[in-house]
TrEMBL record:
Record Pfam families: Acetyltransf_3
Phylogenetic lineage: Bacteria, Bacillati, Actinomycetota, Actinomycetes, Kitasatosporales
Alphabetized GO MF terms: protein-N-terminal-alanine acetyltransferase activity
Gene3D superfamilies assigned to the protein according to its UniProt record, in alphabetical order: 3.40.630.30
Protein name in the entry: GCN5 family acetyltransferase
GO cellular component terms, semicolon-separated: cytoplasm
Length: 177
């Protein structure tokens, strides 16, 4: 799949998901700032960014994307889905980052709906989960607007040595909404 487009329109416009490529390390660096990583334990080292970038380029199973505006192609953030074992079952997990200057336009929710389409098409897992920090109001609102259901809370260690209390949001990919 070359890309995915969320066809919902609105104030922020439509978004496209463009598969992550070699030249996209700049985007990881742009989102690796204190105000965008506060709910994830803070910025990563340059070495860790290089590892993440390599994983994003090679992401299998799953895929990482740059979020672009459908009109004009300007990059506004990143999103992806990847496989994880959660409570004894294989599921897809998603996460996103929208550049500060593009926040509060509904773009992350549009991208989350588009990544759900991509995860659904990729199969084989029934559920797509998102685990934003309980204190991250904006990301929790994205989950709600994108159609996820709040299941409960869970604790995650990310990065190593830093525990985060997260909400467990789940989207049923077999419902086909």
């Amino acid at each position: 799949m070359d890309g995915v487009e969320e066809r919902a329109s609105g104030e922020g416009g439509r978004v496209c998901l463009v598969p992550w490529a070699e030249g996209d390390l700049w985007l990881l660096r742009r989102t690796n700032v204190p105000e965008m990583t506060a709910h994830l334990g803070g910025p990563e080292t340059e070495e860790r960014l290089a590892v993440l970038h390599r994983r994003y380029v090679e992401s299998e199973p799953g895929r990482m994307y740059r979020i672009t505006l459908a009109d004009g192609g300007e990059t506004v953030g990143s999103i992806g889905y990847w496989q994880r074992t959660w409570r004894g079952a294989e599921v897809w997990e998603t996460g996103w980052a929208v550049l500060s200057e593009f926040q509060r336009r509904g773009l992350a929710a549009r991208a989350a709906r588009a990544v759900a389409q991509a995860a659904r098409a990729a199969g084989p897992h029934r559920y797509l989960h998102a685990f934003p920090s309980v204190g991250h109001a904006a990301s929790n609102a994205v989950c709600r607007r994108a159609g996820f259901t709040l299941i409960g809370q869970a604790d995650f260690e990310y990065p190593m040595g830093h525990w985060i209390r997260s909400n467990d949001w789940r989207l049923d990919l077999k419902r086909g909404d």
